[in-house]
Design brief:
The protein is an alpha+beta fold. The chain has three domains: 2-100, no CATH class; 126-185, no CATH class; 190-266. The chain has helices at residues 2-13, 35-44, 46-55, 126-129, 145-155, 172-182, 190-220, 235-276; strands at residues 22-26, 29-33, 59-60, 67-68, 82-86, 93-97. A hairpin with a 6-residue loop joins strand 3 (59-60) and strand 4. The longest helix is centred in the last third of the chain and has 42 residues, at 235-276. The relative contact order is 0.09.
Length: 287
């Protein structure tokens, strides 16, 4: 059964278009995505899904009926071959040959470069955010307020929307105030990291103590030739050393996984804030 399911999924994946070579869950739907989008989703979870929806086409693949998030149909020299006509329902797109796009037509899906974006996914990471935000205090660094607002507009273009009167719905001050009022920290809580480190050190110390006692017992019983200053000498002592190495390695891996989980969770929460601030049904909405 597993072999059958894998084969079926591979068959569907192979029907992706314009660089979409795999499948991922995007916004609750199994969708065609390209490798860069798949990496973002696997690494950042919901945030990666947001980014994929931001830069991808969001059209329906006619071969599978699944939504697709390629970043633009191009020919072999990089020219667009199709455009996406937005239908009156405001949600559905129909793919048309590029030659049929009327001059000045506004009902179409803009390619990423025309929309003021880049083909690359937004850089939402602790490294990038630390350029603007102090990880210890959570405050925007002095003199970086404008750069922070510009960065937020790049990640979520909805911050650039204007009202019917032509005025910006989001000023730099609005973006900054909303961050201080509702924004979660994009950095993992240092106390949680310290707790994870303490758990690792306790496990490591226990493993070392257990290995030492085992060595002493083996040496006393004649099971190994133990020489001071040597970590592995003799059959029994070598096995004890190998066991200690495994235990320490396992504890270290768990510590790294725990910290990565804390950091990823903080970034994902911050990503939900970034996009939720412009979404009416989100708790992070501006108003």
């Amino acid at each position: 059964m597993e072999k059958f399911i894998n084969g079926l999924l591979n068959n569907i994946s192979n029907k992706g278009r314009y660089g979409d070579t795999t499948l991922r869950n995007v916004g609750g739907e199994i969708s065609h995505v390209n490798p860069k989008e798949a990496h973002a989703i696997d690494t950042y979870g919901l945030l990666g899904q947001y980014a994929t929806q931001l830069v991808g086409s969001g059209t329906i693949n006619p071969n599978t009926g699944l939504r697709e998030y390629h970043t633009g149909p191009l020919d072999f020299i990089g020219r667009e071959t199709h455009w996406h006509q937005l239908q009156p329902d405001g949600e559905t797109y129909i793919e048309r040959p590029i030659e049929s796009r009327p001059e000045g037509e506004t009902w179409h899906h803009q390619p990423a470069d025309e929309a003021g974006l880049t083909a690359d996914l937004p850089d939402i990471s602790t490294e990038k955010l630390s350029e603007f935000i102090d990880s210890d205090t959570g405050k925007i660094r002095e003199g970086m307020e404008s750069a922070f607002a510009t960065y937020m507009r790049t990640v979520n273009p909805d911050y650039n929307r204007k009202g019917d009167d032509g005025r910006a719905l989001w000023t730099d001050a609005d973006i900054i105030d909303n961050y201080y009022e509702k924004g979660p920290s994009p950095f993992a809580d240092k106390e949680d990291i310290d707790l994870a480190r303490q758990a690792y050190e306790t496990t490591a110390q226990g493993a070392r103590a257990g290995a030492y006692e085992s060595r002493m017992a083996a040496d006393k019983g004649g099971g190994s030739v133990f020489r001071p200053g040597q970590s592995g000498f003799g059959g029994t002592d070598t096995k004890i050393s190998e066991g200690l190495y495994t235990d320490i390695g396992t504890a270290h891996t768990k510590f790294g996984t725990d910290v990565y989980g804390l950091e990823s969770g903080a970034i994902e929460d911050f990503g939900e804030f970034v996009y939720g601030a412009t979404t009416e049904d989100s708790p992070y909405y501006k108003y």
